[in-house]
Amino acid sequence: MKKTFSEISYLPEFKKDAKKLRKRFQTIKSDLEIFVEKQLFLYHKLKIDNKGIFQISGLHINYPKIYKAKKFACRSLKGRGAKSGIRIIYAYYEDKDKIEFIEIYYKGDKENEDKERILRYYKKEY
């Protein structure tokens, strides 16, 4: 993977989520790499907003900023394009140029992100 951010990390739960999804959607690993190189790079580095990434409000977390990506192109979900139904929750540490993946899920399995998981990791940090 091309170096687009100083650091990219994954919470243990994210890795479990991704492993489960990989059984159903075989391309998800490479789709995630493309997502980082293209969509996250455009949004955070070039400040180009394609209306696919939103900051999650109501968490009362000032740092890092927590985002939800609604546009995620999964090639295993043919014909759906960026509206695949895969959602990604991540934290962006602007000063450290770091992306930390929190959760990945298929919207057909659950409606929304796990706010408890987000708070468990970030409430205590700052």
Write down how many β-strands occur, each being a DSSP E stretch of 2 or more residues.
5
What percent of residues are in strands? 15-25%
Give, in order, the helices and strands.
EHHEEEEH
**CATH architecture heading:** 2-Layer Sandwich
- Average per-residue pLDDT, rounded, comes to 88
Count of structural domains: 1
Which fold name is given in CATH as the topology?
YaeB-like fold
CATH class: Alpha Beta
Helical residues, percent: 25-40%
**Biggest sheet details:** 5 strands, mixed
Distance linking N and C termini? 30 Å
Walkthrough of the structure:
The structure is a single chain. The chain has 126 residues and is an alpha+beta fold. The protein has one domain (7-122): RelE-like (YaeB-like fold), CATH 3.30.2310.20. It has 3 helices and 5 strands. A 5-stranded mixed sheet has the order 1-5-4-3-2. Strand 4 (86-93) and strand 5 (98-106) form a beta hairpin.
Give a quick summary of the entry:
By secondary structure, the protein is α+β, with helices and mostly antiparallel strands.
Short descriptors:
126 residues, alpha+beta, YaeB-like fold, five-stranded mixed β-sheet, 5 strands, 31% helix
Fold blueprint:
Elements: E1 7-10, H1 12-24, H2 28-45, E2 53-55, E3 65-69, E4 86-93, E5 98-106, H3 115-122
Parallel strand pairs: 1-5
Antiparallel strand pairs: 2-3, 3-4, 4-5
